[in-house]
Amino acid sequence: MAENTVDQTGSERYAINVGGNASGQFTVGHHNTVSRTDTSNSAEDTPTADLAALREEFARLREQLPTEGPLADQARENLDDLENAITAPLPNVSAMHSVRDWFTRKLPYLAAAVTGLIAHPVAEQLIAAGGAAVVAEFQRFFGSDLA
User: Fold this and answer.
1) CB atoms within 10 A of CB 130
2) 10 Å Cβ neighbour count for 51?
3) 3-state helix, strand, coil in the chain (%, to 5)
4) Which among 79, 75, 27 has a CA at the least distance from the CA of 55?
5) What is the pLDDT of residues 8-35, one digit of tens each?
């Protein structure tokens, strides 16, 4: 049971009584923001089939990379960096952003595919598992909410 009162100074006061078999968290007050991050889906905890599906997408994109010319080696290195950034125990969002920008500038015809890897459902699980700071950085760079 919660009771909201105003004291002599005009400040709101809350009286909370929790009884019985209660567990979990609660928030009291006005204008509170509550966020929850489930950290049980790191790369080590992500099912092998899910990680395999993400790695298959990386393999498909590798087949589309240039094999000759001045950008061939850089493209492979950047794609490797992206895969490592997404699947690291603590995903590296700034590296993801850097790689995406490199492809946008140097190989724009592949930029959408690279963005698709970053937005892949398994990548989003791994990013979310990185915790609130990683999610906030992802949202700052890519402007999207993770499911």
Assistant:
1) 23
2) 16
3) 55, 5, 40
4) 79
5) 777 776 666 666 555 555 565 655 555 5
